[in-house]
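Consortium newsletter contribution from the modelling node. Members have asked for a concrete example of what our holo predictions look like. Here is one, prepared for the 2'-monophosphoadenosine-5'-diphosphate complex that several groups have been discussing at recent meetings.
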Amino acid sequence: MTQHFIVIGNPIAHSKSPQIHQVFAAQIGIDIGYQRQYCPDDTASFTAVVEAFFHGGGIGANVTVPFKQMAYDCSLTRGGLSEHAKVAGAVNTLLLNKDLLEAGLPIAEALYGDNTDGQGLINHITRLGWPLNGARVAIIGAGGAARGVILPLIQAGIGQLTLANRTMSKATDLVSELSNASPTINQHPINTCTTADLTGHFDLIVNATSIGLSGDTLPLADELACHSAYDMMYGRALPFLQHFAARGAQTSDGYGMLIGQAALSFERWTGQVIDVAQAAATLKNQSA
Ligand code: ATR
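And here is the predicted structure:
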């Protein structure tokens, strides 16, 4: 029997999720339908789309820009949130809470929200063979993307963590907010500074700003160096990666993170484990 999934966004035509999830389904030999679902940018439309999908027998939905907060609010008051979704303040994966359904709640009250974005980063970095245990890590950016990767990085066993941002107050506010929300983060001291003041040698620097979309460049200090540089953006030449590649660092864009977060969503929905490296190789061959 065909299992049905969607990705909800606005815009959504560009989404690579259908192609990625079909590769996962082929790998484990199940039949799925995975559609892009456009939705007007308002809460009532989003809720209607989600409820219609699950009432129609849908198994799982991915949620992308601009609906991740709406999906969070929707799950918070209904079927609940995973710890990662709570800390990220955003949901990228919706499913039905089976315990609530079995307890007799209607489908609309059983919507459960998870967030696999940050763990998708860990999944990709692990595939790259970049060591995280004890690593000195800097994240640049203090918006939604940075917020989602802090808990997974700490859980992966990193050593020092520095959060740098153009607007310093946003970095310090984010650290105090997350420390209050998560005992794991609270037990791990996080340094903060402005992006221009970020100096020293790091094992890993992650660009979690949205600057790749703007064509601007980050003000990176000459005294800033790293072994590995990761940009959460993908699909274009990224000046952040070019900067560190020219200084001898190994680099990666965020396409593998996209595959990693998708695999984790797929695993939540189906209970099956994906060989992500093999799926990534298949996708690379498909686009060659
Ligand atoms: P996202 O959800 O993608 O993280 P966001 O919440 O709007 O998007 O956050 C964007 C991040 O990119 C912020 O850290 C922002 O810095 P500020 O907090 O100072 O605004 C950062 N950013 C965006 N454009 C930037 C630029 N031109 N230079 C430096 N940082 C930039």
